[in-house]
Structure formats: C-alpha cells, structure tokens
Amino acid sequence: METQATATEQQLFISTEAMLRHWQGHRNLTRRVIEAFPEDQLFSFSVGGMRPFAQLAMEIIDIAVPGVKGLADGKWEKVESFDHSLGSIKTKQQLLELWDETTKVIDEYWPQISEERFQQVEVAFGMYENANYATFLYFLDNEIHHRAQGYVYLRALGIEPPFFWER
Hints:
The chain is 56% helix and 5% strand. It is mainly alpha-helical.
C-alpha cells in the first residue's frame, strides 16, 4: 500500500474557492484595521522602530498582486528588493482604494489557478523556491503578521481594533 502520494496526486485539504474566501476574509479584516487608524497616525505612528501601518499595508499589496498573478500563470516578477514605498499614496482613502483595486485583481486571477498549480515548485519573485501552496501561505502569514502589528499600534493609540475572528 502506497502511503505517500506524489505532488501531482495530492488532494487539497481545502478547495481553492474556500481558500480564496479565507484569504479575502483576512483581507477584509486588514482593511478594517486600515479604516480604524486616524489619518495622521496611519502614515506616521510606529512602536519600537517598526514601520508605520500604511507601509505595512503597502507591503501586503505589493506581494498580493504579483503573487496571485505568479500563482496563476507561473510568470513571477523578479524582484531585487521589495521597497514597499507608498509612492503617490498620501491619504487613507487612497490606500483603501488601492486595497480595493488589489482585491479585484485577486478575484480576477484566482480562478485561473488550478489545483495542480498549488503543488508545483517554482521560484517566486526570482528568490523564493517552494511549492506554490507554501508560497501562497507565506502571503497570508505575512498579512496576518503585519495586521498584528497594526493591532499593537491601534491599542497603543487607545483604539479598540476590530475583533480578529470577524473576517
């Protein structure tokens, strides 16, 4: 009896549709964290030398768009270094609009990712070799990590953050 399936024979633990809903639930919660910040603190407040939350949110955006495209078509943008600069983003409204545009890109490209693509090993962004499902989980873990920093910032500012389970 064979106990270990090859990568192409593995069954997914969760459907790709359910995984998208899970990711979008996290994105919805992160969006609510952005909304909870006072405009002036979103771009300037930090604790212990960490980056302001607007920059952390920009990192999430910078990974999500080329990430979902790379998962879909296997054409990963090579990145020498992630800058995560806010560029022309100067207001909370602009950041939220970019967040929403990113969500649309995810919704557009996600259906193009086959179950088999998640099992394939590729080099994401020209630097991270892993199975695509593990690369995707990195995107999600990175967002959760940075959102947690946002929770710390909000609490330090005396603001109750959104309940983390209300995704």
